[in-house]
Amino acid sequence: MNDHSQWYIGAPNGIVLCIDRLNGEMIEGRFYHSYSHEAIPFTGTRQMTLRMEKLYDYLHFPFPGTNERTFLAEQTPARLTKERIKVMTDDELLSNHGDIGTFIIRVQHRQNSTWQGRITWMEENKTVQFRSVWEMIKLIEGAVDQVSHQEDTTEEQWFPEE
C-alpha cells in the first residue's frame, strides 16, 4: 500500500509539474493548475519559472514582496477584480504525471525577489522546503538526473530522510 500523504495541492496557486524529457541538460515538460484544463508547456527551467511567475501574478498569490517600479498612475489591474474560478479539482490535478518525474509545487511566499515554498517529488513521496527559485530548480534537476542515471549509479537519494 502506497502512502500518498504528501500528495496534496494545499494552496490556490499549487501546481503539478510534469517533466517529460531531458534534452541534453534541458528539461522539458508541462504544468497544470486549478484554473485551466490545459497544460502549460515549457522548454527549460527559465521558461518554466517565467510561466509560473506569470500564473502567480495572474492569481495575485502569493503577493510579491517586491513590485515593479512604475511612474505611471496606479490602477487596479483587471486581474485583481476578475473572479478566478477553479475548473480542476485537486484529484484531477494530481492525476497528471510526467514521463520522467512529477512534482507538486506550493509557492508560499515571494520575498526577496525569489520564491519560498514546498516541493513534493510524487514518485518518491518526499517533500522538502525550498528557499529560492534556484534551490527549487536544483532539487528538480537533481531528481531528474537521479532518475535518468538510476541504472548506472547508487547515488544518495534526492531528499534527506525524514
Walkthrough of the structure:
The protein is α+β, with helices and mostly antiparallel strands and 162 residues long. It has one domain. It has 4 helices and 6 strands, in the order βββαααβββα. It has a 6-stranded antiparallel β-sheet, covered by helices on one side. The model has no long low-confidence stretch (mean pLDDT 86).
At a glance:
The chain is an alpha+beta fold and 162 residues long. The protein has helices spanning 45-59, 78-81, 90-94, 133-148; strands at residues 15-23, 26-32, 40-43, 101-111, 114-121, 126-130.
Number of strands: 6
Task: Write the H/E string, N to C.
Answer: EEEHHHEEEH
Fraction in beta strands? 25-35%
Shape: globular
Number of structural domains: 1
- Oligomeric organization of the protein chains: single chain
Radius of gyration: 17 Å
Instruction: Give the distance, in angstroms, between the N- and C-terminal Cα atoms.
Output: 19 Å
Tally of helical runs: 4
| Average pLDDT, all residues | 86
Structural class: alpha+beta
As residue ranges, the low-confidence spans are: none
Q: Mind summarizing the main beta sheet?
A: 6 strands, antiparallel
> Which percent range fits the helix content?
10-25%
Spatial arrangement of strands, main beta sheet: 3-2-1-4-5-6
Descriptive terms for the model:
6 strands, alpha+beta, 6-stranded antiparallel beta sheet, about 160 residues, about 25% strand, about 25% helix
